[in-house]
Amino acid sequence: MADPTSGQPYDGTDSLVGLARTLRAAGVAATPDRVHAAVEALSLLDPAKRSDVYWAGRLTLCGSVDEERRYDAVFDAYFGDRPNSLVRRQRVVIQKMQLMADDSGSGSGEEEELPATAASAAASTEEHLRQRDVARMTAEERAELHRLLALMQLPGEVRRTRRHRSAHRDTVDPRRTLRNWMQAGGEPAALRHRTQARRPRRVVVLVDVSGSMAGYAGALLRFAHAAARRNSTPTEVFALGTRLTRLTREMAHRDPDMAMAAVAEAMPDAGGGTRLGVLLKEFLDRWGQRGTARGAVVVILSDGWERGDATLLGEQVARLQRLSYRLVWANPRKAAPGFAPLAAGMAAALPHIDDFVEGHSLAALERLAAVVRGQQ
Fold it and tell me: Model-level pTM?
């Protein structure tokens, strides 16, 4: 099939796969199984027809009302306002959608084509923002960062549950098969199948809000808010300051600014010192040991500076690692040239950590999210 505007062969599957990649950059969980379903749906329709491509994608790639709104905005930006041509735009569209932060509604579909030089400059600026250290951002860059963090998701790695769900293949479901036969009057009928249900693991986020983390705490709290608000499974958030503060209720606010205002009221100790070992012990005694951390993906966002006993910190981190499914520590200082975990607290905790990653920039937080999802 040829594109009517250029005469070049038009591959509807390639465009749909590219759309799915753009959707993932904009926060839509366009997983491989959804993409496969979308390609199958499009094979039954006309891939050169805009409405057919739209509905093939919307009915298979979206899983919530919020994702449908994002899908509409991405679709308009990706294919443009041309009603009969579905040839992909320049690659810059994908780069732009990675930084799409419009959470108010669908796009207008009236974007203008960007010149090559403008596209290159925009991509360079966006990549610079993704790599820039949070503590060194200007006010404008920080505002843009906050909008982008609101789009992020932090689901835990998928696990199998004891429950089953119906499936087209896998093992035979004896109860549903027998019920099907009885409804058929005892005559042989189609076998029914089932498979084990899967769901994301619980995520627990512990954010260090001490004075040494002053340049990063605000962005990391917004990252935790995105995780708590957008996850389908419960996400627990705690602040580690001069005391331990549970922020799960404050993070329930849908609006990030309202959530941050509630968080500020809940933890007046931000910016002070912290004793990580003592606070982790309190967390484990009050919440973790009772089920909050059991089998969960636990994320500690801290530079590891310990004002108390480093030995106690090491013991509590080891205890937390035994309870959790995976223990991830994100240190904003790790990206500094010549970094080595020489601080007593960090050195004591490191042997018991499953994943030790950076946490200083948007790109680093994106990689952290991938680790939590079990993709890295």
Answer: 0.62
